[in-house]
Amino acid sequence: MKTMIVAVMALLGPFSNAVLADEGTASGWAEKRAIAETDSAEGRFVTPASKLDDSAVRKTLSRVIPGQTPDLVEESAYKGLFEVVYGSDIFYLSADGRYLFQGDMVDLTTQDNLTEARRTQGRHKLMQTVALDTKIRFIPENGKPLHVVDVFTDVDCFYCQKLHHEMADYLREGIEIRYLAFPRAGVGSHSYEKIISVWCADDQLDEMTLAKNKQQPEKRACENPVQEHMALARKIGVSGTPALVFEDGSLLPGYVPAVQLKKMLDEKKAE
User: Fold this and answer.
1) Residue segments in the chain with a per-residue pLDDT below the cut of 50
2) Taking the CB of residue 42, how many other CB atoms lie within 10 A of it?
3) Key word Signal present in the record (predicted)?
Protein backbone atom coordinates (compact mmCIF):
# COMPACT_ATOMS: atom_id res chain seq x y z
CA MET A 1 0.00 0.00 0.00
CA LYS A 2 2.72 2.46 0.97
CA THR A 3 4.55 1.81 -2.31
CA MET A 4 1.45 2.57 -4.36
CA ILE A 5 0.71 5.75 -2.41
CA VAL A 6 4.29 7.00 -2.80
CA ALA A 7 4.08 6.30 -6.52
CA VAL A 8 0.79 8.17 -6.74
CA MET A 9 2.20 11.16 -4.89
CA ALA A 10 5.25 11.23 -7.14
CA LEU A 11 2.98 11.43 -10.17
CA LEU A 12 0.51 13.97 -8.82
CA GLY A 13 2.19 16.91 -10.55
CA PRO A 14 -0.27 19.85 -10.46
CA PHE A 15 -2.28 18.15 -7.72
CA SER A 16 0.16 19.67 -5.25
CA ASN A 17 -2.39 20.26 -2.52
CA ALA A 18 -3.06 16.55 -2.05
CA VAL A 19 -3.27 15.51 1.59
CA LEU A 20 -1.44 12.33 2.64
CA ALA A 21 -2.26 10.95 6.08
CA ASP A 22 -0.13 8.42 8.00
CA GLU A 23 -0.82 4.84 6.94
CA GLY A 24 -2.79 2.71 9.36
CA THR A 25 -3.88 -0.92 9.33
CA ALA A 26 -5.86 -3.08 11.69
CA SER A 27 -3.07 -5.68 11.55
CA GLY A 28 -0.87 -3.77 13.97
CA TRP A 29 2.03 -3.08 11.60
CA ALA A 30 1.21 0.64 11.62
CA GLU A 31 -0.45 2.24 14.59
CA LYS A 32 -1.33 5.64 13.18
CA ARG A 33 -4.74 6.00 11.60
CA ALA A 34 -6.72 8.61 9.79
CA ILE A 35 -10.06 8.41 11.61
CA ALA A 36 -13.19 9.96 10.20
CA GLU A 37 -15.08 11.38 13.16
CA THR A 38 -18.84 11.54 13.31
CA ASP A 39 -20.29 15.01 13.05
CA SER A 40 -23.99 14.44 13.58
CA ALA A 41 -24.72 18.14 14.09
CA GLU A 42 -23.70 18.90 10.53
CA GLY A 43 -24.81 15.52 9.24
CA ARG A 44 -21.58 14.93 7.37
CA PHE A 45 -20.89 11.31 8.24
CA VAL A 46 -23.78 9.66 6.45
CA THR A 47 -24.70 6.90 4.09
CA PRO A 48 -25.07 8.68 0.78
CA ALA A 49 -28.65 8.90 -0.38
CA SER A 50 -27.70 9.44 -4.01
CA LYS A 51 -24.74 8.48 -6.12
CA LEU A 52 -22.22 11.27 -6.68
CA ASP A 53 -20.51 11.79 -10.01
CA ASP A 54 -17.16 9.97 -9.94
CA SER A 55 -15.83 11.28 -13.25
CA ALA A 56 -13.33 13.69 -11.65
CA VAL A 57 -11.99 10.91 -9.45
CA ARG A 58 -11.58 8.54 -12.39
CA LYS A 59 -9.89 11.26 -14.45
CA THR A 60 -7.34 11.78 -11.66
CA LEU A 61 -6.72 8.04 -11.36
CA SER A 62 -6.14 7.65 -15.10
CA ARG A 63 -3.55 10.40 -14.87
CA VAL A 64 -1.64 9.39 -11.75
CA ILE A 65 -1.98 5.58 -12.11
CA PRO A 66 -2.05 5.11 -15.89
CA GLY A 67 -2.72 1.67 -17.30
CA GLN A 68 -4.34 0.30 -14.15
CA THR A 69 -8.07 0.00 -13.68
CA PRO A 70 -9.32 0.24 -10.08
CA ASP A 71 -11.36 -2.66 -8.75
CA LEU A 72 -13.77 -0.19 -7.19
CA VAL A 73 -14.50 3.54 -7.10
CA GLU A 74 -17.36 4.20 -4.74
CA GLU A 75 -18.55 7.02 -2.50
CA SER A 76 -17.45 6.27 1.03
CA ALA A 77 -19.50 6.55 4.21
CA TYR A 78 -18.16 10.10 4.54
CA LYS A 79 -20.12 12.21 2.07
CA GLY A 80 -18.04 13.65 -0.74
CA LEU A 81 -15.10 11.30 -0.24
CA PHE A 82 -14.56 8.41 -2.65
CA GLU A 83 -13.05 5.07 -1.72
CA VAL A 84 -10.60 3.75 -4.33
CA VAL A 85 -9.65 0.07 -4.30
CA TYR A 86 -6.81 -1.69 -6.10
CA GLY A 87 -6.77 -5.25 -4.77
CA SER A 88 -6.09 -4.83 -1.04
CA ASP A 89 -4.72 -1.29 -1.53
CA ILE A 90 -7.21 1.36 -0.48
CA PHE A 91 -7.12 5.14 -0.36
CA TYR A 92 -9.58 7.99 -0.62
CA LEU A 93 -10.03 10.89 -3.04
CA SER A 94 -12.18 13.97 -2.72
CA ALA A 95 -15.04 14.19 -5.23
CA ASP A 96 -13.17 16.79 -7.27
CA GLY A 97 -10.20 14.43 -7.59
CA ARG A 98 -7.83 16.91 -5.94
CA TYR A 99 -7.22 15.64 -2.40
CA LEU A 100 -5.89 12.19 -1.56
CA PHE A 101 -6.23 10.66 1.90
CA GLN A 102 -4.45 7.56 3.15
CA GLY A 103 -5.40 5.72 6.33
CA ASP A 104 -8.20 3.76 7.97
CA MET A 105 -11.71 5.14 8.15
CA VAL A 106 -13.35 4.10 11.43
CA ASP A 107 -17.02 4.53 12.29
CA LEU A 108 -16.80 5.65 15.91
CA THR A 109 -20.46 4.87 16.52
CA THR A 110 -20.23 1.21 15.56
CA GLN A 111 -16.46 0.87 16.12
CA ASP A 112 -16.21 -0.71 12.67
CA ASN A 113 -13.00 -0.24 10.71
CA LEU A 114 -14.53 0.34 7.28
CA THR A 115 -11.21 0.38 5.47
CA GLU A 116 -9.98 -2.89 6.96
CA ALA A 117 -13.27 -4.56 6.04
CA ARG A 118 -12.75 -3.56 2.41
CA ARG A 119 -9.05 -4.48 2.59
CA THR A 120 -10.03 -7.95 3.82
CA GLN A 121 -12.32 -8.39 0.83
CA GLY A 122 -9.45 -7.46 -1.47
CA ARG A 123 -7.08 -9.93 0.18
CA HIS A 124 -9.67 -12.69 -0.11
CA LYS A 125 -10.04 -12.02 -3.82
CA LEU A 126 -6.28 -12.02 -4.38
CA MET A 127 -5.78 -15.22 -2.39
CA GLN A 128 -8.23 -16.99 -4.70
CA THR A 129 -5.83 -16.42 -7.61
CA VAL A 130 -3.31 -18.91 -6.18
CA ALA A 131 -3.67 -22.49 -7.33
CA LEU A 132 -4.14 -24.93 -4.46
CA ASP A 133 -1.49 -27.28 -5.82
CA THR A 134 1.19 -24.60 -5.46
CA LYS A 135 0.81 -24.67 -1.66
CA ILE A 136 2.35 -27.18 0.74
CA ARG A 137 -0.51 -28.55 2.83
CA PHE A 138 -0.50 -30.10 6.29
CA ILE A 139 -3.96 -31.64 6.75
CA PRO A 140 -5.59 -33.09 9.89
CA GLU A 141 -5.48 -36.88 9.96
CA ASN A 142 -9.21 -37.29 9.37
CA GLY A 143 -8.96 -35.18 6.22
CA LYS A 144 -11.77 -32.92 7.42
CA PRO A 145 -10.31 -29.66 8.74
CA LEU A 146 -12.51 -27.35 10.78
CA HIS A 147 -10.50 -24.35 9.60
CA VAL A 148 -7.96 -23.58 6.89
CA VAL A 149 -5.16 -21.04 7.33
CA ASP A 150 -2.73 -19.90 4.65
CA VAL A 151 0.70 -19.18 6.11
CA PHE A 152 3.41 -17.20 4.33
CA THR A 153 6.61 -18.76 5.62
CA ASP A 154 10.40 -18.48 5.55
CA VAL A 155 12.33 -21.63 6.45
CA ASP A 156 14.96 -19.60 8.35
CA CYS A 157 12.49 -17.50 10.39
CA PHE A 158 12.53 -18.40 14.12
CA TYR A 159 8.78 -18.08 14.68
CA CYS A 160 8.09 -19.91 11.40
CA GLN A 161 10.18 -22.74 12.77
CA LYS A 162 8.35 -22.58 16.12
CA LEU A 163 4.97 -22.75 14.37
CA HIS A 164 6.12 -25.73 12.33
CA HIS A 165 7.50 -27.55 15.37
CA GLU A 166 3.97 -27.35 16.82
CA MET A 167 2.29 -28.59 13.63
CA ALA A 168 0.83 -31.61 15.44
CA ASP A 169 -1.01 -29.21 17.78
CA TYR A 170 -2.60 -27.30 14.89
CA LEU A 171 -3.66 -30.50 13.18
CA ARG A 172 -5.07 -31.83 16.46
CA GLU A 173 -7.19 -28.67 16.73
CA GLY A 174 -8.57 -29.35 13.26
CA ILE A 175 -6.60 -26.58 11.53
CA GLU A 176 -5.19 -27.21 8.07
CA ILE A 177 -2.00 -25.24 7.42
CA ARG A 178 -1.28 -24.28 3.82
CA TYR A 179 2.21 -22.88 3.29
CA LEU A 180 3.12 -20.23 0.75
CA ALA A 181 6.72 -19.15 0.26
CA PHE A 182 7.99 -15.78 1.43
CA PRO A 183 11.78 -15.83 1.92
CA ARG A 184 12.29 -12.41 3.50
CA ALA A 185 15.88 -12.00 2.31
CA GLY A 186 14.63 -11.90 -1.27
CA VAL A 187 15.35 -13.54 -4.61
CA GLY A 188 18.78 -15.12 -4.82
CA SER A 189 19.31 -15.33 -1.05
CA HIS A 190 20.28 -18.49 0.79
CA SER A 191 16.75 -18.72 2.24
CA TYR A 192 15.30 -18.32 -1.25
CA GLU A 193 17.41 -21.19 -2.60
CA LYS A 194 16.49 -23.39 0.38
CA ILE A 195 12.77 -22.84 0.03
CA ILE A 196 12.95 -23.62 -3.70
CA SER A 197 14.64 -26.90 -2.78
CA VAL A 198 11.71 -27.64 -0.47
CA TRP A 199 9.11 -26.91 -3.14
CA CYS A 200 11.01 -29.02 -5.67
CA ALA A 201 11.29 -32.07 -3.39
CA ASP A 202 9.33 -35.24 -4.09
CA ASP A 203 8.20 -35.25 -0.45
CA GLN A 204 7.54 -31.58 0.27
CA LEU A 205 6.21 -32.19 3.78
CA ASP A 206 9.28 -34.05 4.98
CA GLU A 207 11.59 -31.57 3.28
CA MET A 208 9.79 -28.63 4.88
CA THR A 209 10.25 -30.27 8.28
CA LEU A 210 13.92 -30.88 7.56
CA ALA A 211 14.48 -27.25 6.55
CA LYS A 212 12.54 -25.92 9.56
CA ASN A 213 14.85 -28.05 11.74
CA LYS A 214 17.76 -25.92 10.48
CA GLN A 215 19.07 -28.65 8.21
CA GLN A 216 20.21 -28.00 4.67
CA PRO A 217 17.93 -29.60 2.07
CA GLU A 218 19.45 -31.11 -1.05
CA LYS A 219 19.81 -28.38 -3.65
CA ARG A 220 17.12 -28.71 -6.30
CA ALA A 221 15.73 -26.66 -9.15
CA CYS A 222 12.38 -26.93 -10.90
CA GLU A 223 9.48 -24.84 -12.07
CA ASN A 224 8.15 -23.42 -8.81
CA PRO A 225 5.68 -20.82 -7.43
CA VAL A 226 8.07 -19.07 -5.01
CA GLN A 227 8.28 -15.74 -6.83
CA GLU A 228 4.53 -15.82 -7.49
CA HIS A 229 3.94 -16.29 -3.76
CA MET A 230 6.36 -13.47 -2.93
CA ALA A 231 4.59 -11.08 -5.31
CA LEU A 232 1.22 -12.00 -3.82
CA ALA A 233 2.55 -11.44 -0.29
CA ARG A 234 3.59 -7.92 -1.19
CA LYS A 235 0.23 -7.21 -2.82
CA ILE A 236 -1.73 -8.15 0.30
CA GLY A 237 0.55 -6.29 2.70
CA VAL A 238 2.77 -9.03 4.12
CA SER A 239 6.09 -7.68 5.38
CA GLY A 240 7.18 -10.36 7.85
CA THR A 241 6.79 -14.03 8.62
CA PRO A 242 4.93 -16.00 9.61
CA ALA A 243 1.89 -14.20 8.22
CA LEU A 244 -1.47 -15.92 8.62
CA VAL A 245 -4.33 -15.34 6.20
CA PHE A 246 -7.76 -16.60 7.25
CA GLU A 247 -10.42 -17.89 4.88
CA ASP A 248 -12.22 -14.54 4.79
CA GLY A 249 -9.04 -12.66 3.85
CA SER A 250 -8.17 -11.37 7.34
CA LEU A 251 -4.42 -11.00 7.84
CA LEU A 252 -2.72 -11.77 11.14
CA PRO A 253 1.05 -11.29 11.39
CA GLY A 254 3.09 -13.50 13.67
CA TYR A 255 3.01 -16.81 15.48
CA VAL A 256 -0.13 -17.81 17.38
CA PRO A 257 -0.32 -21.00 19.52
CA ALA A 258 -2.71 -23.65 18.23
CA VAL A 259 -5.32 -23.45 21.00
CA GLN A 260 -5.46 -19.65 20.81
CA LEU A 261 -5.68 -19.75 17.01
CA LYS A 262 -8.51 -22.27 17.13
CA LYS A 263 -10.41 -19.99 19.53
CA MET A 264 -9.93 -17.03 17.21
CA LEU A 265 -11.09 -19.00 14.17
CA ASP A 266 -14.15 -20.36 16.00
CA GLU A 267 -15.14 -16.84 17.04
CA LYS A 268 -14.66 -15.53 13.51
CA LYS A 269 -16.78 -18.30 12.05
CA ALA A 270 -19.55 -17.53 14.56
CA GLU A 271 -19.69 -13.84 13.59
Assistant:
1) 1-2, 6, 9-49
2) 8
3) yes
Residue 122 belongs to some domain of the structure: no
214: how many CB neighbours lie within 10 A of its CB? 9
Of the three residues 67, 84, 117, the one that is the final residue of a domain is 117
64 lies in the same domain as 26: yes
Are residues 153 and 211 both part of a single domain? yes
Strands (E), 41-111: 72-75, 81-86, 89-94, 100-101, 106-107
Peptide bond into 145 cis (omega under 30): no
Q: What is the pLDDT, as a whole number, of residue 44?
A: 38
Helix (H, G, I), strand (E, B) or coil at 254: coil
Q: Which pLDDT value is given to residue 52?
A: 77
- Give the pLDDT of residue 22: 30
> φ, ψ for residue 78 (rounded to 5)?
-90, 115
Classified as helix, coil or strand, 175 is strand
Single-letter residue type at 253: P
Q: Is residue 124 part of a domain?
A: no
Sign of CA dihedral 23, 24, 25, 30: positive
Structurally, the chain folds into a number of domains equal to 2
Q: What is the DSSP string of 109-167?
A: TTTEEHHHHHHHHHHHHHHTTS-GGGSEEE--TTS--SEEEEEEE-TT-HHHHHHHHTH
pLDDT number for residue 88: 81
Domain span holding position 89: 2-117
The CATH number given to whatever domain includes residue 13 is 3.10.450.70
Return phi, psi of residue 190, to 5°: -60, -40
